[in-house]
């Protein structure tokens, strides 16, 4: 008897606890800001919470007993409702967006989930829908779309303006540059010649600026397309270095380069765009380097495991310039951005070159990176995927045991020439001055000649050593260059063309 009494009170307590839980749950649902609705299997509304009443504007008694389809609108695609019913009757939850209409007639979008509920026997008992009013979100999205469209229109207008202005400016600027070159060919006083040279230099700066602005406008307008073709990497690099050799020589910088033997001789790439990136990076390195050297290295990486696919060619431009603080690196590739205003005043430029380079590298499917620190110089490298046309390296002429000699001051150029001789497998005699060559035995000699040595040689009687070549800066004045003709077989400009040198040596017998 006592056990039955205890069991009775236990069941009463358990039922009371369940009622408390149900009451708490019911109050939570009713006070929830989300709209909650329960319908029977015929879609007739059995329950709505206060959140739904606030959202749709009807009182609870106006909703209960009606079918929820009464509040659907033609704006909701029929296939959405068909998919909803098929999904929930299959016992699966359904999520999507649809349209309702408030009591005052306003149409509004809702997003929600409708879930089936089963009874204790596993049969469908009812459906529960929980949804939220999307009106404010939709208004925000529409406002954002309008803002984006206005911004896009502004960008397109800016691009058209920059493109038009750049084209219009190029015509008179090219005329100024052309007539300035003609004027320099006439008889001028030293003072006049200096003025004309300043005009020429200023004109070239403005032409480069207009070219950069036009290029940037084309990129932002999405009008730039690649034109891949066969490209000789080594010849492309030689051409770029030749263009910038005088600029480096004017600052007394060594312009060096090295192409790994594993770099394929011919690749498929947009050579014009590749050359453009190299010019920007090397010119930038020269601009921000007061003394020392600028070096370009090229290496290649074949597909992993001998698989077919694109190779990766990596170009690295290293300088001994002023360097950049780590915190300023992220600003480098923004248009019209430089590390600080003082660098703009001291070195010139607009910051467009690096922004254009980054865009071009990305257009070619590559990435560009920077490593720098103040006082330590900078290293810019970019890697691009390329197709390879030929893997067979060009076989240089057999130099046999020809003995080479180099008279050059210790430094970067001498180290680079030593690496070349090692690559060719020929012995190299290295001395500091050309006078030391007289007492040595060699077959072909190279002499690094600067302006001071050229003036010294100008005081000596000309002679024609057939086996000696002068290596001079591209900026050596013409009058000094002409005095070397009688002292050397040929006068070669720095930087030397590595591919051509073995042929030059083999032809000198």
Please estimate the helix content: 40-55%
Q: Oligomerization state of this entry?
A: single chain
Total E-strand runs: 17
Q: Which runs of at least 5 residues are low in confidence (pLDDT < 50)?
A: 1-6
Q: What is the CATH architecture assignment of the largest domain?
A: 2-Layer Sandwich
Spatial extent as radius of gyration: 39 Å
- In the CATH hierarchy, what is the superfamily of the largest domain? Histidine kinase-like ATPase, C-terminal domain
Largest pleated sheet? 7 strands, mixed
What is the number of independent domains?
5
CATH fold-level name of the largest domain: Heat Shock Protein 90
Mean pLDDT: 82
At the first level of CATH, the class of the largest domain is Alpha Beta
Structural summary, described in words:
The structure is a single chain. This protein has about 500 residues and is of the alpha/beta class. It has five domains: about 1-25; about 30-135, Beta-Lactamase (2-Layer Sandwich); about 140-220, Signal transduction histidine kinase, dimerisation/phosphotransfer (DHp) domain (Helix Hairpins, Orthogonal Bundle), CATH 1.10.287.130; about 230-390, Heat Shock Protein 90 (2-Layer Sandwich), CATH 3.30.565.10; about 405-505, 3-Layer(aba) Sandwich (Rossmann fold). The protein contains 14 helices and 17 strands. The strands form three sheets. Strands 6, 7, 8, 9, 10, 11 and 12 form a seven-stranded mixed beta sheet that branches. The protein has a five-stranded antiparallel beta sheet with strand order 2-1-5-4-3. It has a five-stranded parallel beta sheet with strand order 14-13-15-16-17. The longest helix is centred in the first third of the chain and has 50 residues, at about 135-185. The termini are far apart.
